[in-house]
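STRUCTURE:
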């Protein structure tokens, strides 16, 4: 027998133990990887108008919104995903000014129930109310109006609040808009 052709084999008990421990782990890893990779890809999607949450910076969001009409956006789960709402989500106030002043975005439209006024007057996770108050002052300065009828709801911000459709979390902000 040729010494080079000799195979070093493990004792049968060790092979059996490795097979029982290693094989299930390898199979589980092979099954889990495709799902994990898909989930990771979904979480790290590209920044775009359709996926404004994925934008890492105001500059990236601005580039994604280039050429998008200022009032475009899907209405989903009682949120109007306009470029202005995207700027609010990322707290891109300069981009918001650009959208309002240069691209003629209506400062009343976008966000919760299609209303930027309701959006800045309600609670958002990880949003300091002082930042929402800054947005409210900016929107008001550019003519945001509680009586503007929103195309997606057919109602104004004032109607939505008066009818109890929306609960205002920051009444001091809301009153800046709702005062007659």
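SEQUENCE:
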């Amino acid at each position: 027998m040729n010494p080079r052709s000799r195979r070093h084999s493990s004792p049968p008990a060790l092979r059996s133990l490795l097979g029982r421990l290693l094989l299930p782990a390898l199979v589980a890893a092979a099954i889990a990887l495709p799902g994990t990779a898909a989930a990771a890809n979904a979480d790290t999607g590209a920044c775009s108008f359709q996926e404004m949450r994925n934008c890492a910076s105001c500059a990236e969001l601005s580039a994604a919104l280039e050429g998008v009409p200022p009032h475009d956006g899907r209405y989903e789960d009682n949120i109007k995903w306009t470029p202005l709402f995207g700027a609010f989500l990322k707290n891109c106030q300069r981009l918001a000014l650009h959208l309002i002043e240069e691209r003629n975005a209506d400062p009343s439209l976008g966000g919760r129930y299609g209303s930027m006024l309701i959006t800045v007057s309600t609670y958002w996770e990880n949003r300091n109310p002082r930042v929402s108050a800054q947005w409210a002052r900016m929107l008001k300065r550019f003519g945001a109006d509680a009586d503007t009828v929103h195309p997606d709801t057919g109602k104004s911000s004032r109607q939505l609040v008066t009818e109890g459709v929306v609960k205002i979390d920051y009444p001091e902000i809301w009153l800046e808009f709702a005062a007659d």
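REMARK: Strands lie at 75-76, 79-80, 111-112, 149-150, 155-156.
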